[in-house]
Amino acid sequence: xxxxxxxxxxxxxxxxxxxxxxxxxxxxxxxxxxxxxxxxxxxxxxxxxxxxxxxxxxxxxxxxxxxxxxxxxxxxxxxxxxxxxxxxxxxxxxxxxxxxxxxxxxxxxxxxxxxxxxxxxxxxxxxxxxxxxxxxxxxxxxxxxxxxxxxxxxxxxxxxxxxxxxxxxxxxxxxxxxxxxxxxxxxxxxxxxxxxxxxxxxxxxxxxxxxxxxxxxxxxxxxxxxxxxxxxxxxxxxxxxxxxxxxxxxxxxxxxxxxxxxxxxxxxxxxxx
Length: 273
Description:
alpha+beta; SH3 type barrels; L,D-transpeptidase catalytic domain-like; eight-stranded mixed β-sheet; five-stranded antiparallel β-sheet; 4 helices; 17 strands; 24% helix; 34% strand; disordered N terminus
């Protein structure tokens, strides 16, 4: 963007200076007669068109530069290599906070969404860490591979809505049920950890479950369903759009299938109040 604007700033003075030079160089006979030599265009018109063309080119370059600056870079995903164990540290080059193998508790390949970066150190979110805590791993570690995704998910609790984006552009928007009073949906930056068929845990989860790295610190009294957070289906379609869950985001099966088919494990999930 700045390069395009500098180009515009340099070109305009040159073009404007050219105007009097071109007019001063006109043939005296042409000025006296009021006519133009055969086959030539009026100098004033030619110069004006040159300026206009130059300005248009600079404007197009500026718009292109702005679009490039606004393009959302792909999100990073840390994948644990098969047979490896990775140490997640409390801070860059700090003590080990936890160790993670190559599979999740649900049997998926272990992947962590990157939410922060400090030099060669990648800060990831993990369900074994408290919400808001980050585990750090060196990009140079031989136990991991770094992947990228163009997909991202944004959830708005107050609007009771989830938005799926690709390269920052909205692809799908749909309503969800959110946590009820006493068990509100946790907010923060998380990532998809597993993609699971709903019937694996019961028909109440609808077609699909996208487990995320968040946990529910305020489970309802007597709750026995665990504290892992997810975006999942429901048999109670009337609850969608209401504060009715134990914290998870409930959606219609059609929307869940759309997510399942597009957002890979490791996709960033940002939940806002």
